[in-house]
Structures are given as structure tokens and as C-alpha cells.
Amino acid sequence: MIPVKNNYQFEDMLDKHQLKKTAPRLRVLSMMYSKNTATSQPDLENVMHDIDRVTLYRILNVFEEKGIIHKVFDLDGTANYAVCHSDCEANHHHDEHVHFNCTVCKNVYCLNELSLPSITLPAGFKPESFTLYASGLCPKCDKKNSVK
């Protein structure tokens, strides 16, 4: 679970990344930190009716560029966004952990405690990032299925 932050911490975060402290940015940060799963732009649009689609897209884009959030894809290929837990830098994320896609509830989880193993690529290949996806049942869905 992501540690809960308050608005002052969100304001400090925006200051640290040289971003203006706007109400929409603060609301998006608050929403993303309140979730324990990655979330898509359409899901955010469904709960943040007062932030238009273009503004939300721009917020997510700048947060990703600044290393506040990272992008992870679900089983349908939809981009989801999750809060970075490590010290990500602008345009260089250190979110090389396992991403778990639940096949029942469709939630995407960052398993930060599971780091990717060291991978050596053949000569001439220069990696920029690695991603490992696992899919199956999350604990909540597994519990529901075992009760049936």
C-alpha cells in the first residue's frame, strides 16, 4: 500500500519537480496515492468529472515525464499509471519491478517488493527499461473464487 500523503506533501512534490501547484494536479496526485492499483486515464475521468480529458492527459504526461508516475499496460493494452516508489528522475524511471494483472477484476498491481533479475543482453543492445508482467488472480479475487 502506498503511504498516504497530505496536500502539503503533494505541494512539496510539485515544487520539487518545478511544477505549478494547481488544483487539478493536486487532485490527481491525491487520487493516485489513495489507490493500491494502477489506474487508467478513463478510470480517472469517471471519478474526476470537473477535470477535462485534455487537462488530465497533460497532467498524466507531465507526471510521467517528471518521474512522479510510471506507465504500465493492462491485459487489454490500455495504459495505466502508478505512483513511482523509487527515486525516479525525469525521463528515466526506476520502476523495474513485477506488474501483476488480475484476470478477474482487471486491476494492475505494482509488486514493488519483487525486483527484476539482472538481465544481460547480447552485444549491441542498449536497454532503456525492462518490464515483467504476471497475470492471474489477485488476493481479493482468489478469495472470492475459493469461497464458491
What does this structure look like?
The chain is α+β, with helices and mostly antiparallel strands and 148 residues long. The protein has one domain (7-147): Arc Repressor Mutant, subunit A, CATH 1.10.10.10. Helices cover 35% and strands 21% of the residues. The protein is built from 5 helices and 6 strands; from the N terminus they run ααβααβββββα. The protein has helices at 7-16, 23-34, 41-47, 53-66, 139-147; strands at residues 39-40, 69-73, 79-83, 97-102, 108-115, 132-136. It has a 3-stranded antiparallel β-sheet with strand order 1-3-2. The protein has a 3-stranded mixed β-sheet with strand order 5-4-6, with no helix packed on it. Strand 2 and strand 3 form a beta hairpin. The longest helix has 14 residues, at 53-66. It is globular and about 40 Å long. The mean pLDDT is 87.
Counted beta strands:
6
Biggest sheet, strands in spatial order? 1-3-2
How many helices in DSSP terms? Answer: 5
Order of helices and strands: HHEHHEEEEEH
Tell me the strand percentage band.
15-25%
**What class do helices, strands and sheet pairing give?**
alpha+beta
According to CATH, the homologous superfamily is: Winged helix-like DNA-binding domain superfamily/Winged helix DNA-binding domain
Structural domain count: 1
- Report mean pLDDT, rounded to a whole number: 87
CA radius of gyration is: 16 Å
The CATH architecture comes to: Orthogonal Bundle
Could you list the spans in which at least 5 consecutive residues all have pLDDT below 50? none
Q: Fraction of residues in helices?
A: 25-40%
CATH class: Mainly Alpha
Per the CATH scheme, the topology name is Arc Repressor Mutant, subunit A
Terminus-to-terminus distance: 27 Å
**Major beta sheet, specifics?**
3 strands, antiparallel
Shape: globular
